[in-house]
Description:
Layout: H1 2-49, H2 51-60, H3 68-84, H4 89-114, H5 126-151, H6 160-166, H7 174-186
Amino acid sequence: MRLIKAKKLYFLSIILTIILSALTFSSAVSSADSKLSLLLFKTIDERLGYMKDVALFKAQNQIQVEDIEREKIVLSNAKKLAVRHGLDPNSMEHFFIAQINAAKAIQYRFRAELLTLEMPARSVDLESNIRPALDQLGSDIVALFATLLQNQSAVKEESRKIFIRTLQSQSLSEVEREALFNAMLEVRSSQ
């Protein structure tokens, strides 16, 4: 009788150990995914953080905010990167369209501010400095989405408030922030 109880306790302890290990692993994966999500959010914010400099360059050089040809290049590159990383290119394109719209909103608002302010004297170089940084951040964003999708769904609804708070630009409305997050929710793998 004691032997049977000892075996039951032994098996029960093994089962509890397995359950606790699974919970610990799940918690560790969840924590890693949260950190990756936050890194993705900060990378998006960093990319949008360049938009006032982009707007300044365009204002100093009398260039329109909207650059359809450049947008086509950015979208094409995003789709190619998505395919390379095993992501659905159409969902990535949709996200980048939302990001481009947010970027243009920031640029338009800053250009409007420049109508009442003196044009800053500082020089910005779109081609040599800003664009390469934006291209790299765009690549990083796609890679982060791919890494997240390997572990879970790319972005979860529960992260919405964190994302909204992470965006530092005061030039983005709540509606624009929400639209950007909604587009993030749609990013998926190509499978």
